[in-house]
Amino acid sequence: MSTFLESQNWRYATKRFDAAKKISDADLNTLKEAVRLSASSYGLQPYKVVIVENPELREQLKGAAWGQTQITDASHLFIFASDVTLDAASVDKYITNISETRGVPVDALGGFSDMMKNVVGNLSSDAKNTWTAKQTYIALGNLLGAAAELKIDATPMEGFNAAQFNEILGFDKLGLSASVIATVGYRHNEDDTQHYKKVRKSQEELFITL
């Protein structure tokens, strides 16, 4: 646990990345697995994670993120896109996955399936989109934690135009909507932000024990 806390103290929201440094394939796979293993409501994972490496595409996306250089200078750009078409068919697909993974008959999962379909079916479009978007932030947290353990810098970002991202990436045709992004790579030696002391509330101010 001390190593985990040390890593959390080491990480910060990197403002300037070293464009010459790239994440290894092995480390990238570890980050992908960390995201894949993230918790989500019911385990549904109602999102996709798009990893953008293409420099021309990232240059376009930078224009939709108010010119922030992290978009193009980081080794990789992770885009968490929520599923805006989540429906009964999505639940059926998940139930099939559970059945095949655990060797459980689909019929035995009927109650769980009906419950999820009832929840999803009774949500308004706005409520559903809010709910699926929240799930992406859980996955983002796993990415940040795993990256810190590997001493890889990761910056979560909400400063982008989601509608423009959706248009550039063709998300509308895929039933997706960009929710939150993270730039991942290695800090530049001249990024002064890395030397700032971490500012957080004290435990006494943050926590309430009842």
From TrEMBL:
Q: Known CDD domains for this protein? A: NfsB-like (cd02149)
GO function terms (MF aspect): oxidoreductase activity
Source organism superkingdom: Bacteria
Q: Which residues form the Nitroreductase domain?
A: 10-186
InterPro entries from the UniProt entry: NfsB-like, Nitroreductase, Nitroreductase-like
Q: Give UniProt keywords alphabetically.
A: NADP, Oxidoreductase
Q: Name one Pfam family in it.
A: Nitroreductase
The entry assigns this protein to a family as follows: Belongs to the nitroreductase family.
Q: What is this protein called?
A: NAD(P)H-dependent oxidoreductase
What organism, scientifically named, is this protein from? Flavobacterium potami
